[in-house]
Amino acid sequence: MERKKDVKILVVDDEDYMREVVRTALEGAGYEVEEAGDGKTAVAMIRQYPYNVIITDLRLPGLTGEVILEEALALFPETIVILMTGFGNIQSAVEAIRKGAYDYLPKPFQLAELVMRVEKGLEEHQLKSENRMLRGELQEKYSFANIIGSSAAMQNIYRLIRVVAQKTSTVLIEGETGTGKELIAKAIHYSGPRKDQPLVSVNCGAIPSNLLEDELFGHVKGAFTNAHQHRIGRFEQANHGTLFLDEVSNMPMDLQVKLLRVLQEREFQRVGSATTIKVDVRIVAATNGNLLEQVEKGDFRGDLYYRLNVIPISVPPLRQRRDDIPQLVGHFIEKYCAEQQLRLKRVSHDAIRALMGYEWPGNVRQLENSVEMAVALSGDRDLLDLEDFPVVSRRPSKPEKFDTIEIPDDGIHFNTMISELERKLILQSLQIARGNKKRAASLLHLKRTTFVEKLRRMGMDAPDEEIAEA
Ligand SMILES: Nc1ncnc2c1ncn2[C@@H]1O[C@H](COP(=O)(O)OP(=O)(O)OP(=O)(O)O)[C@@H](O)[C@H]1O
Ligand SMILES: [Mg+2]
Q1: Averaged pLDDT, 408-417
Q2: Ligand lying nearest the CA atom of residue 202
Q3: What does residue 199 show for φ and ψ, rounded to 5 degrees?
Q4: Residue 182 C-alpha to ligand 2 middle, in angstroms?
Q5: Which is deepest, 60, 141, 432, 443, by most CB within 10 Å?
Q6: Does ligand 1 lie within 6 Å of residue 56's CB atom?
Q7: Is the omega angle on the peptide bond into residue 106 within 30 degrees of 0, that is, cis?
């Protein structure tokens, strides 16, 4: 009986008498019950609390039971929704089952029958989450096996992951672009006790800064011109799980204050609302710049930095762990041969030597891209050789010489110069890549999301879905 106390059931019906008898039966079986007399109230309650079970009449004044079903499943896909249907409504009930309702009961029904269906629903739900837990254990293995490299530096990182995964302390992962920060964040989540809860990522660098607050904290209806609906933010989505704040160094100052508050108080408000929402979220943040330097320059709040930097994990660039390169190359060859349905290829000693000697400014991501290209372009040859890796076999292209920029007597406008250079690089990379943004981004060793956001800031608009999907 003890466990039933944790189960909260919402009963929705416009007939007081109906709610009353259902409530009594369920309470008699040991469940906690709340009631709503119409659809609107029900939806408002669902948005406030993740009920385990919702028992609703199909026909209601205002909103129908179908809308309640959709709303509940959109917010909490695990909700068990049972519909009570009047005479002649079987068709809609079946339709609702197709949409994800757990069961339906034609009126009139025996109360014992209702209690039994609820019990059965909860039991199946329990089984499902146990299964998921098993899968989660596989996932843990997987997400660790996913990180390749046995250099001392990487072994240190594995040890750290194992330890911090068991805690809720905030983790700050620092490392150059492409070093595997996101992989590490996933490994932390999936090897800890929160692995069956959501892992939610926010790329603070790819979301335009004016939208970031909304993204993180959500909004209430009417908070701004286009806020036609409530929307929960990433913090709420990540409740009981992990929130991965990627490229946290790009967070605008005003949001840094709000983030600090969430880290301190574990509570926040949706945009446009005064109601305080409490969350239990584990934060893993990542940055590819040196955050402390940014603090010293005044671009990042010191107090926030110390709140984030509770457990630092610093991922060394690939050029400082070259011993990992052969293993990584082998792993990526396997991956891309399988993906492209090719016979497994080998790689020559010369090529390996050259790959180990290269600087890899884009780190593992760049190495992975090179291997993918080599596999794709080598046709039916089984042996990958030096010429299959143009980055290392071509004589290194000298980067622009910047020391020739003269500063005139009346000075130079720093920000204008930098933006101009950025603009040139972006346009040139797009030209070389013939407009393919993914390739252009990888030419600059940028993530595509970062690249697309830069394009957007330059006024060269990219459709939204491109940002979301990367
Ligand atoms: N140790 C590793 N083993 C296997 N794959 C790796 C490793 N490190 C990175 N990768 C791969 O390299 C790519 C980049 O990794 P990831 O996205 O985690 O890097 P990142 O540090 O988050 O980069 P950025 O700062 O640009 O976001 C991914 O495809 C990832 O799977
Ligand atoms: Mg990343």
Answers
A1: 81
A2: 2
A3: -110, 115
A4: 5
A5: 60
A6: no
A7: no
Tell me the per-residue pLDDT of 319-332, one tens digit each, with 9 for 90 and over: 999 999 999 999 99
State the average pLDDT over residues 144-173.
89
Residue that wins the pLDDT comparison between 398 and 182? 182
Using pLDDT thresholds of 50, 70 and 90, give the confidence band for residue 107: confident
Please report the sign of the dihedral spanned by the C-alpha atoms of residue 119, residue 120, residue 122, residue 126: positive
Looking at the CA of 148, name the nearest ligand: 1
- CB 39 less than 6 A from any atom of ligand 1: no
Q: Phi and psi of 218, rounded to 5°?
A: 75, 180
Ligand nearest to the CA of 318: 1
Q: Is the CB of 177 under 6 A from ligand 1?
A: yes
Pocket test for ligand 1, best of 284, 321, 364, 448 (most atoms within 8 A of CB): 364
**How far is the CA of 264 from the CAs of 107, 127, 224, in angstroms?**
51, 36, 27
Q: Is 183 in the pocket of ligand 1 (CB under 6 A)?
A: yes
Distance from Cα 18 to the centre of ligand 1, integer Å: 56
Structure tokens at 219: 């909004």
202: left (phi over 0), alpha (psi -120 to 50) or beta: beta
pLDDT at 218 over 80: yes
Closest ligand (CA of 151): 1
Tell me if 189 CB under 6 Å of ligand 1: no
Top mutation candidate among 174, 182, 284, 336 for ligand 1, by most atoms within 8 Å of CB: 182
Q: What is the structure's pLDDT at 134?
A: 60
Residue range 30-85, pLDDT digits in tens = 999 999 999 999 999 988 888 899 999 998 888 889 999 998 888 777 889 999 98
* Apex 192 CA angle, 190 and 196, nearest 5: 60
Structure tokens at 338: 């399988």
Q: Which residues are CB-contacts of 313 (< 8 A; sequence separation ≥ 6)?
A: 157, 160, 161, 164, 171, 172, 173, 174, 184
Quick one: average pLDDT of 356-361? 92
The mean pLDDT of the chain is 86
Q: Can you read off the two tokens belonging to residue 240?
A: 């009981």
**Can you tell me the mean pLDDT for 411-438?**
84
pLDDT recorded at residue 400:
53
- Nearest ligand 1 atom to the CA of 176 is 25
| List of domains in the chain | 2-128 (3.40.50.2300), 146-316 (3.40.50.300), 319-393 (1.10.8.60), 405-469 (1.10.10.60)
